[in-house]
Design brief:
The protein is mainly alpha-helical and 317 residues long. The chain has 14 helices and two strands, in the order H-H-H-H-H-H-H-H-E-H-H-E-H-H-H-H. One of its GO terms (molecular function) is lactoperoxidase activity.
């Protein structure tokens, strides 16, 4: 197995390749505002220290942003007569969180940079990385230079954000539509090694699935009744505040919480990746970093496209 230093060198090389392909750069703010990234890190670390669950919430915001027409911070926009907010899409409504932390980051970077030069889309990308690091996971160089959208699309959010009820063929197709392959699917799903899920997203599995450990099902049923308690939380793996490989260990034991989790290890094409990640945590770290860099390059707005929002929740007029 390669050393950790070698793995991070490979991640750096992948970042450099992606920079060429998409005109984004890890050094985008080096001259514009060299204190931007340290400021984001400071706010994220404080937020995660205050509430460990926030790390997963910030990572999820970046994921849900990129899957809806690219990484453009469209999911941060509040509803208006002209904005069909993605916050009310099925995958986000009453579950997406961390918006106030993004507001704090935006205010802090605008102050230290002397104005609005850092996009909300870049803030989401950097906050996701810093959240993973704060919870003990890998680091990577975030490619920067995205700009913010002036629209949102709730209909597209309902169609494109993967559902917790999807089987493997649906998941593979969903990721393929974003230019992501099966390895990206499994690696990025490993983000579920941190955080919690609401009862409504896994009730069907714990009461009806056949590919589930019965003891695990009974444990989850204790806090997720057949009716009611839709927002009751359960951890996605046994160590929800630590970025490790317990998520994949759970899948091998048929203890995946969501239908879409266990679908990755159910006698099909992705089983081998799950097994690799249980045996070699650094392989998961490397693939996760590689895949999230790739995801962060989904249709970014650059140059004169879009805008740099003054407030992440609303379009500049």
């Amino acid at each position: 197995m390669a050393s950790r230093a070698h793995i991070f060198l490979q991640i750096f090389f992948l970042s450099a390749l992606a920079t060429t392909a998409f005109s984004l750069s890890p050094d985008y703010y080096a001259n514009i505002c060299p204190e931007a990234l340290p400021t984001i890190k400071k706010v994220v670390e404080a937020a995660v220290y205050k509430e460990r669950r926030m790390g997963a919430s910030l990572l999820r915001l970046h994921f849900h942003d990129c899957f809806v027409n690219g990484c453009d911070a469209s999911n941060l926009l509040d509803p208006t007569p002209t904005i069909d907010s993605e916050k009310t899409a099925v995958a986000n409504n009453n579950s997406a969180r961390g918006f106030e932390v993004i507001d704090q980051i935006k205010a802090a970077v605008d102050e230290v940079c002397g104005g609005p030069v850092v996009s909300c889309a870049d803030i989401l990308a950097v906050a996701a990385r810093d959240s993973v690091v704060a919870l003990g996971g890998p680091s990577w160089e975030v490619l920067l230079g995205r700009r913010d959208s002036t629209t949102a699309n709730r209909t597209l959010a309902n169609l494109d954000i993967p559902s917790p009820f999807m089987d493997l063929p649906a998941l593979i197709n969903n990721f393929k539509n974003q230019g992501l392959n099966e390895k990206d699917l499994v690696a990025l799903s490993g983000g579920h090694t941190i955080g919690f899920a609401q009862c409504r997203t896994f009730r069907q599995r714990i009461y009806n699935a056949s590919n589930i450990d019965p003891v695990f099902a009974e444990e989850r049923q204790a806090t997720c009744p057949r009716t009611g308690g839709d927002t009751n939380l359960s951890p996605l793996d046994p160590t929800p505040a630590l970025f490790d490989t317990a998520y994949f260990n759970n899948l091998v034991k048929q203890r995946g919480l969501l239908i879409s989790d266990q679908a990755l290890f159910n006698g099909s094409s992705t089983d081998y990746l799950v097994k690799i990640y249980t045996l070699y945590p650094e392989a998961f770290w490397y693939d996760f970093a590689r895949s999230i860099i790739k995801m962060g390059n989904i249709k970014p707005l650059t140059g004169n496209q879009g805008q740099i929002r003054l407030n992440c929740r609303m379009v500049n007029y």
